[in-house]
Task: structure prediction
Amino acid sequence: MVKTPLLIPLERDHAAVEMIDRPASSAEIHGCLDTITRLNGLFGSRRLTLRHFRRMLRSLPADRPVTVLDVGAGAADIPVTLVRWARRHGRTLRVIALDRGRATLEYARAYTAGYPEITLVQGDALSLPVRSVSVDVVISAMTLHHLGPEAATRYLAEIDRAARRGWIVNDLVRGRVAHALVRMVTRVFTRSAMARHDGPLSILRSYTPPEVIALCQKAGLFDVRVVHHPTLIRQCAVRAKP
Result:
């Protein structure tokens, strides 16, 4: 039986570099972040992190303050989503939103105005500026696929080091249908040249669930659960610490 192109596995593009990872103007980066936040809202990726986050909090008393670190926070739209949920449910939440890009943090500062629970910090995902087990939960979305295998292993180890209760890594899943869909969506929903370039490339740079499991194991993390959400072209690697 001859495989059709859709059934042939899509190899990861190890060499490609997204425009947002290169030097770029603030206007270009802000336009791309506009697209990312809009698509995150339309397609439910923020709610996906929130769903796993709520499950992780079940073991904590409702009156206990919770600290969260978001690694590679981008616009910080996910921290805003978590804080809105916490306010509605009477939970006390403090979020450190970390990103390495100055222009990205400028955008996030405007986006998080009115949310004093969120603190913005410039820092490196591969060398987190926090003590070991110093935050309750670490979250990270759309960061893993920017990293090659060696850097990704270090990133996962750093996240695990920082987390006291556990962590959630939300990212894209590589596949031919996903690539075609993201290419179409970025042409329909945005005029940002950066978003149109980086969206499909993000799929080519992303990992499959078995590859994420292998990265976790390489980092010495053998009890990580990877949940595939195919309708959202997403996967969440989740580790709840004992």
User: Anything to note?
Assistant: The longest strand covers residues 163-172. The chain is about 45% helix and 20% strand. The beta strands are 66-71, 93-99, 118-122, 135-141, 163-172, 225-229, 234-240.
